[in-house]
Amino acid sequence: MMEEEEAVAYLQRVARMAGEDIAAYAAAHGRVEDLQRLIKDSHIWVPLATDNVGTPLVVVACAAGFPECPELLLQHGADANRPSRSLGATALALACANGHLECVELLLRRRVARSCVWRGRTPAQWAAHFGHVVCMQRVEPSAPTPAPVAQPPSASDISADCLETHLRSFN
After folding, report:
1. Are 105 and 123 contacting, i.e. CB atoms less than 8 angstroms apart?
2. What tens digit of pLDDT does each residue of 31-44 get?
3. Tens digit of pLDDT for each residue in 71-108?
4. pTM of the model
5. Sequence-ordered list of residues with C-beta below 8 angstroms from that of 37, at least 6 positions apart, any chain
């Protein structure tokens, strides 16, 4: 019992130093054993647990790419369709945007909403935007493979006299 108390106290100190809630720190860093301990000892109530800015722990874990953490949280009542209060993003949107295929597949097995829109894009569109084609195709199997996006030239590639014209073209 003393070992568990010491482990929780240590995790609280580390989370405090990082400026995060203890459970959010564990979810964001893939510390599934610590999450299990917090759940078992009733330090968190999973269905409503969020980080300091209102992001559900399952969203935090999927954004960070640790599939074991969202799996545990979903088993204990987390709602994968619940968006972040501060960002408005769901777990699937952030897993897709960050290219975390294992998290995407876990969420799809749990039948999360695929068509939720965050900042004007669906999860599949976020995956495509950042070049995560496999994630995009898992979420939207009928989606065509996107063409590579040409990167705009950097400021150092443009002569000083046409820099202003180039910048106006992006507005």
Report:
1. no
2. 999 899 888 887 78
3. 999 999 999 999 998 888 999 999 999 999 999 999 99
4. 0.73
5. 4, 7, 8, 43
